Amino acid sequence: MFSKDKYEVSKEKRFVVKSVDQVADGSQYTIVVDRVTGVHYLQTWVGGGSSITPLLDAQGRVVIEHSPNV
Length: 70
What we know:
The protein has a domain at 11-54. By secondary structure, it is mainly beta. The protein is built from 1 helix and 4 strands. The protein has a 4-stranded antiparallel sheet, with no helix packed on it. It has one helix spanning 4-7, and strands at 15-22, 28-34, 40-46, 49-54. Strand 1 and strand 2 form a beta hairpin.
């Protein structure tokens, strides 16, 4: 379905951590960027669980970095 060449970013990792925020209650919020598509994701660790979702801007659109090779 997907061409390996189209989604390969040399030998570097596809996902990079852009920022990490620790909260006093032990929660952690991480912004992860897909270097191929430029899509930003919000990853949360709260209590014993975690989740990940696309990061949205103020208008509700997915945040996409136009030069994703961060």
